[in-house]
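This section describes the prediction task in plain terms. A model, or a person checking by hand, is given the sequence of a single protein chain and must write out its three-dimensional structure as a string of tokens. No templates, partner chains or ligands are provided. The sample shown here is typical of the held-out split.
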Amino acid sequence: MSNAIEDRKELKCKMKAIESSLEIEREKSHELEKRLRLSVSSCEKVKTERNLLKGKVDSLTKEIARVCKGGLTLSKIENMLHDNRSMKTEISILKKQKAEALRGSEKLQSLCDSLMAAHNTEGLIAANTIHKKDEYERIITSLTENLEAKEMQISSLKQANQLLLEKGD
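The expected answer:
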């Protein structure tokens, strides 16, 4: 009997060990089921995203086909984009050059205005000088005529004095 009690105790211990193992396995199974549900959910999200991306790919493929109707290929489009970038760079450089040219033009305009003002001033001075020269020539002519008239008077007076001297002698 003592053997039976021991066997029973041993069986109870084994049973507790098995129950404990069973509980651990249930927890593992429960954890694995959670992981499986998360994996299935994640897989569904990935499938949804894949389908969404497939739709976008189809839409882009149709758009490229529409754009490429005129015989354009993807490489031609890439070349056009590259050319567009090059043109934008060139336009930027040209805008800078235009701004520099405008600044240079403004400086030249200012210099031209200064020269024109100086020329106008010199022109006024020259016109004034010509006017004064003409005035001086007129005065000189008048004085010369006056002097000649006086010389003629003096000559006439000398002749008259000479005649008077000769008569008085």
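For orientation: The longest helix spans residues 74-168.
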